[in-house]
Design goal:
This protein is α+β, with helices and mostly antiparallel strands. Helix content is about 50%, strand content about 15%. The protein contains eight helices and four strands. Strands 1-2-4-3 form a four-stranded antiparallel β-sheet, with helices on one face. β3 and β4 form a beta hairpin.
Length: about 190
């Protein structure tokens, strides 16, 4: 490969980034070539499959668990539809369990879902009760009826998309889902 010489100036900010990356790449040339590969779509991230790319994107965000619940509530206001559209639960479960939701059985999925809600700190208390064929999930919080209604809707959408029958009771500080696996769905066999 024929090499070309370049000479340029960069800002203090970009010089600091370049110096930081020198440890990893070994030379300024290699840092610049790696950056150009990413810009051109040939970098490491572009070589990842879609699931690996999603995991990288999620791991790049700070966890919401370090924030108080009221901060989470205010952060999520106005973004409820986006949470469902971007399949945040599915992605969270993939990252925390390393398994796609379609590869989980009924009880495993629900237990993992509850673990995810605990990790994200969306609720003060998350309980799951297995009643042999049906499960009840109880979610307690102190954020009001609107918070309950939004999460009840998001959770129902997630469960219905997984082929579960879901009956929900929602109150000011409480959500209860009673779930069963539909007979015509493969969910429940699990890996």
């Amino acid at each position: 490969m024929k090499k070309r010489r370049i000479s340029t100036t960069i800002s203090k900010k970009h010089w600091a980034i370049l110096k930081e990356k020198l440890e990893k790449y070994g030379s300024q040339q290699k840092v610049l070539e790696a950056a150009l590969d990413v810009l051109d779509g040939e970098g490491t991230i572009s070589k990842l499959n879609p699931i690996q790319r999603q995991r990288m994107e999620v791991l790049d965000f700070p966890s919401l668990a370090m924030f108080p619940r009221r901060t989470i509530k205010h952060t999520l206001e106005g973004h409820w539809n986006r949470i469902a559209e971007e399949k945040v639960y599915e992605l969270g479960l993939l990252v925390t369990t390393g398994k796609h939701v379609d590869d989980m059985g009924f009880l495993e999925l629900l237990e993992s879902f509850c673990d995810l809600l605990r990790t994200l700190n969306f609720f003060e208390d998350v309980q799951i009760e297995d009643k042999g064929g049906t499960c009840t999930i109880k979610l307690l919080h102190s954020e009001g009826k609107v918070y309950s209604d939004h999460f009840a809707y998001l959770n129902e959408e997630f469960f219905n998309d997984r082929g579960m029958e879901c009956k929900t009771v929602s109150a000011d500080n409480y959500i209860m889902h009673t779930l069963s696996c539909r007979k015509d769905t493969p969910l429940g066999t699990g890996a």
